[in-house]
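Box 3.1 A note on notation
Throughout this textbook, protein chains are presented in two layers. The first layer is the amino acid sequence; the second is a token string describing backbone geometry. Keep the layers aligned when reading.
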Amino acid sequence: MRSVVFFLLLIFFTHLFAASPTDERKVYRAVKTNPHPPTIDGKINDSTWNRAAYGDGFIQVDPVEGNPPSKKTYFKICYDQKNLYILIYAYDSEPDKISRRLSRRDDIQYSDFVGVVIDSYFDRRTGFGFTVTAGGVRGDAIFSNDNEQPDNSWDPIWEAKTSVTDSGWIAEMRIPFSQLRFAQKSEHIWGLNIFRYIYRKQELTEWQLIPKDAAGFVSYFGYLKGIKGIKAPRRIELLPYSVSRLSKFKREEGNPFATGRNLFFGGGLDGKIGLTGDLTVDFTINPDFGQVEADPSEMNLTAFETFFEEKRPFFIEGKNIFEFPLGIGDGGSSREKVFYSRRIGRQPRYYPDLNDGEYADVPEQTSILGAAKLSGKTSGGWSVGILDALTADEKAQIDRQGNRDEEKVEPLTNYFVGRIQKDLREGNSTFGMILTATNRNIKDDHLNFLNKSAYTGGIDLMHQWHNKTYYLDLKVVGSYIRGHQDALLRVQTSSARYFQRPDANYVHLDSSRTSLCGHGGSVNIGKVGNGKWRYVLGGIWRSPGLELNDLGFLQQADRFIQYFWVGYREFNPVGIFRRIDFNINQWNDDGISHTNNIRFSLSFKPSNCLNITLNPTFTLNIDNLQYVTTEEINGNNRYIMARLKQKTLGIVFRFNYSITPNLSIQFYGQPFVSAGNYSHFKRITHPKATDYQDRFETFTDKQIQFDSEDNTYYFDEDRDGQIDYSIDNPNFNFKQFRSNLVIRWEYKPGSQLYLVWSQDRTTANEFGDFSLNRDVRDLFQVFPENIFLIKLNHWFSL
């Protein structure tokens, strides 16, 4: 390990004093429209365009960086008091070969397209991207933290039209200033880059070349000048909606809540208010997310929670400002963060205790009564994000043999997030802070297992130097929670801590505790660009008392990890290879447990408007120490483990049919089958023994017997002929099919009509063996739950 660290430090300081690349920025000067703005029709027939100069000089990025483009590209830019207008002419001597596929918004990868990215903050870190394909499909994204990875969840209101000519194709765009963010100035300088992609040649060209090994993205842009006298527009946008939803499911005899159908009518409102040109307030009242794609199926046998991506529109927009990640790598801990928006509106945490003949109707999600957020970036380089949300006091309806009453399953809760970050040294360094707070109004004893209050604070520092080639990243967080003794006992004994474990003499389980605090963080130093070699050296720490899970995401506290990574990149084609990546990492295993995963992707495009994709995944997982249960014998706990052999098959199927760029039919379906068989049962004896085999004792055939009639394992641990304890057969077959069919029509910019059909089929049994034909057949014999939804919203700009 010492030699590895020395090697990394040697490379680091060797490159530290290397020469910086020269900074050559292109400049384009926009002109004001006079007297009339261009009509957005994809044609060059407006006199305004004659006043604007051509921008050219595009350079190839892919496949060979620095080569001249195979086709010429020109652009023009003009503006008026409300809009920015962009004309791009993509010359092509073979216009019949231009790829013009129709698809849903942001799905542009199989088409010729052109686009513009604008750094209107001029912070050299944030870019607003607008793309249109030759077929007229729009794409838009935000680029944050000077990173080239786009956030496609951003959906601004703008316009684009295209047309194909004998010598290529033309794109015209109208981008309202209300969709950009900028400070109030008499004259503006913005970052700018224009790009073009030719699908049949897999060729990407840029007006301002950004090298493939660049240590940034937005910071390499050219400049857009000449915009004078514009004012930040008054931005008041309202998006009211109405929704009708019919649920159909299996009728359950005797259950008054399972009648087989449920009809719901509702409505709500989303809105935006522009406080200044660079700060915006978003708010939502009774939001509905019925058109959102279902979460993927999973079979989680670990002690740790699964992370799910956010898909709800209100929480997606502007989420980059609220980010405060703590994780590393690409495993489960990589998702750890201070703010995890899926906590807001989650499934209620309590389920009523029921006796025979009693039934409960429990809400599937906690209602969000209202939420608001302020986000943006000031002219002084301050990124600001403030979010506050209030979730409902949810109750379950309970029927006790004809007598009805209610029982709370989730208390009234307020969530708060505050995030600020300051750019220093023209965006080469940043310093920021975050604060989160969760406060629950708990008045019922059965909800005392929830923390009454939870607070988290953190600071982060990012310092880059030598043209952003090298960086130092530091994050420090602290947490404080308080509540009833039941809540703190649950936190102490959770899988993130296990204070009760006998081998941890530095912590102790305190059943009288009513508060807990902790700290954690990470530090990384490395080289991330401007060369073929990249490397990172760093570490993370989490104190035993750190707890983020009331509003963040934390899998495991009480840990310290030191790590390193070295990578080599060959960006230009070499022989038959278009690109070569080489990485060195390190990990350990027990020589018995292992996971094999096979996945591939098929894409079929029978026409310009139809796209079909199939993504099968098969996983074979053999875990030598899979937890089964905890039993007690003679007052002592027995932690029973086993070898699990698990086979899982999942297939994600997507069907996208685009009638026009604004009218599409989308289908998502995922059959999922997982079978697990347990064998080689064992009990933990010395969990931290140096020799792996000394950590447990495997039961012999004389100590364990299986009764197939009652499907139970019986254990005679001390071999005295008496049963010490028994467990149900843990083998499983889990089968699920989830699907969404969505017809989406954007009947005017920003206004949509949704027709949605969702279906869920779920079943399970204890075969333990994997039989695809049997399991799929059983799955489609299950009575499904169907949801039919109609949602209409209408965008108003005041």
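Residues 2-16 form the longest helix (15 residues). The first strand starts at residue 27 and ends at 29.
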